[in-house]
Write a structure and sequence with these properties.
The chain is an alpha+beta fold. The protein has 5 helices and 7 strands, in the order E-H-H-E-E-E-H-E-H-E-E-H.
Amino acid sequence: MQIRPYREADRPLLRTLYLAARKVAFTWHDSSNYQLEDFDRSTLGENVLVAEQGGKLLGFVSIYRAENFIHHLYVDPHLPPLGVGSALLLAAERTFTSTGSLKCLVKNEKALAFYHKHGWRSIATGCDGSEEYYLLHSPRKSDLMATEAGGRTRAFR
């Protein structure tokens, strides 16, 4: 698997992946208004990294670099677990110049467990409209470097 920068030619497939992944992840939402173009609006001005294997796009992460903020991380929901999300998260963490952050909806228990498994800590709660979320911070750089050197998965603290 390769993690690489987004190319404009990726747009059609990432639009489809984003739409499908959101429908699977946010089962409590009415997804009837979701559109392919949502990808364009949601990633505007962000750095997007893509996971690819054998010419097939597997997932993406979008980062607002000015704030070391992960805005989106989605993997093709039809794939078996292959470590795509973990690879994208690690690639995003490598771009951070200080502590990284992200928001994860409280109801998105699967995503929350994923981030905690990778050493991200919930540091605050908030509400965006009617949705409660956790604000998470990334592991310290020293923890990340030790994990990469040792090849072990970070545990939630």
